[in-house]
Design a protein that fits this description.
By secondary structure, the chain is of the alpha+beta class. It has one helix at residues 35-47; strands at 2-7, 14-18, 21-22, 25-26, 32-33.
C-alpha cells in the first residue's frame, strides 16, 4: 500500500508512505525532505 504524504521541501518531489514507512525524512524545521535531498544535505554538511 502506498499513500501520498506531501512534497519534498527542497526539490518538490512527491513523498509517499509505503508499507508503513515514510519514503523520506522530516527535517528539524518540520518539513518533508526526500532521501536524495537529505543525502545531498548531509554531504554538504560533512564538507563544511
Amino acid at each position: 500500500m502506498q499513500e501520498y504524504v506531501g512534497n519534498c521541501g527542497a526539490c518538490g518531489a512527491s513523498i509517499y508512505c509505503k508499507e508503513g514507512f515514510l519514503n523520506g525524512i522530516v527535517s528539524e524545521d518540520k518539513t518533508l525532505v526526500c532521501y536524495d535531498c537529505s543525502e545531498e544535505r548531509d554531504e554538504r554538511a560533512e564538507e563544511a
